[in-house]
Amino acid sequence: MEQINSDNKDKVIAFFNEHWGSSEMVISTGIYTCENLDGFIFEENDQIAGLITYVIKDNEIEIISLDSILEGKGIGTALIEKVENVAKQKQINIVRLVTTNDNLHALRFYQKRGYRITSIIPDAVNEARKIKASIPLIGNEGIPLNDELELKKII
Question: Which of 56, 115, 135, 138 could cross-link 153 (Cys pair, CB 3.0–4.6 Å)?
Answer without folding.
Answer: 115
